[in-house]
TrEMBL record:
Alphabetic keyword roster: Carbohydrate metabolism, Glucose metabolism, NADP, Oxidoreductase
Recorded catalytic activity of this chain's protein: D-glucose 6-phosphate + NADP(+) = 6-phospho-D-glucono-1,5-lactone + NADPH + H(+)
Pfam families named in the record: G6PD_C, G6PD_N
Domain of life: Bacteria
Protein name per Swiss-Prot or TrEMBL: Glucose-6-phosphate 1-dehydrogenase
Enzyme Commission number: 1.1.1.49
Presence of the UniProt keyword Oxidoreductase in the record: yes
GO cellular component, one term: cytosol
Residues of the active site: 247 (proton acceptor)
Catalytic class of the enzyme: oxidoreductase
Chain positions recorded as substrate binding sites: 185, 189, 223, 242, 345
Family matches, as InterPro entries: G6P_DH, G6P_DH_AS, G6P_DH_C, G6P_DH_NAD-bd, NAD(P)-bd_dom_sf
Family label: Belongs to the glucose-6-phosphate dehydrogenase family.
Amino acid sequence: MNGSTAATPVEPCDFTVFGGTGDLALRKLLPALYLRDRDGQLPDGFRIVGVSRAEADDEGYRVMVEAALVEHVPSDELDATVVRRLLGRLHHVTLDVEDVADWHRLHERLKDGAASDDVIRVFYLAVAPALFGPICDHLDQFGLATERSRVVLEKPVGTDLATARAVNEAVGRVFDESHIFRIDHYLGKESVQNLLVTRFANTFLEPLWNSHWVDHVQITVSESLGVGERGSYYDRSGALRDMVQNHLLQLLCLVAMEPPTYVDRETVRDEKLKVLQALRPMTPDLVDRDTVAGQYAAGLCDGAAAPSYADEVGHTSDTETFVAIKTEVQNWRWAGVPFYLRTGKRMSERLSEIVVVFKEPPHPMFPHSEGTSEANRLHIRVQPDEGMRLHMTAKEPGPGGIRLRPVSLDLSYATAFGQRSPDAYERLLMDVVRGNTTLFMRRDEVEAAWTWVAPILERWSEPTHRPRRYPAGTHGPFAANTLLERDGRSWQETGIE
């Protein structure tokens, strides 16, 4: 098992991926299914059907997927026997969404298995959101959207509140909300889930997890890569839509949510919704004061020259590749505690991290001590090298007076548990087959997030708004530092080494 604990097999399933020859399917979804197969979680009768406009038969699709596995799965994780087994599960259907004859072919393929009316069907829509509604309508028309069917929606669900509602309405006409899985892969990461366990299975933190003891919270999701081949999509989206509306707000919700009665598929989502509804509304004045948009210029990233965003997309653009926001959760627990959100491309490192900074001690107990002390901080590393670090102040050993020194308590998941952490998609895809919606966004969550983001989008769309430039390979525009410095704070640039 290569260090992984044995996994409980899921039920047999027809797992259909629309966009089956696309980047997401080949880079993430199919490697994730391979790894679940390797760990014994895919039973006999688990079929994978790739659907795309590519003119490929089953054998041609298998060749394509095998090449993708070699490219995207570490060589020490590849097992020739498992690869052959996975390839044997694969089928491909060439389909144009508007061509009824193509839908007949898909219908025949999915109906040709034993007990096909009772089998679990997963339809993963790794395609543009504009196709979500038409695909669901055709699934309904051809009798494929049964009581045992689930549909998975890739982000973004819409581009604003109106389009998100339109997508939700279109999909909701065919599938019950309990069968709709709006996926945010950040919620499948080990450290994100461990945040819930850290908060709610350990009593020592709960008395401190509030405005009495927490000074502020920072959430950073930075990437060293540029937009690359996603330039066309990204130029219509930008960092606010691509990252803040979903990933960063979901992380904020898990940090700030109240303890649910128990951790279950609806109780967790109920509490996350309350956080989104409690976020301080962003008026035009607050947008001007508490948000920063940036765009990377040419620079040096990962030791190599990096082009500007304009050079990568091929034209001058006002699309933001960096966002920093100061906000507040206006409820009893968090009133007055700033939450600082930051995300960007072409930054100094690839890092996703939550930092909870606690307040200084209320009284200096060691007035004649030497050395330095720092505010206690809890760093929760989401990626890479998942883990946690608690920064504390201790006395440095030695005779004489007291010399203070910052130290840390470290938890590396790889070291502590000695086994491989499954990729987020591995966990989430299996949850879809099981029908477990806990780690997926509910319709009201998505629309609440868009409601909060809407005033920022509107203000930034004005002609006078221009993103601030920052050199590739840095921490973003200088104005993002000012956002904290005027509050007497600074970004925490070091976490788990």
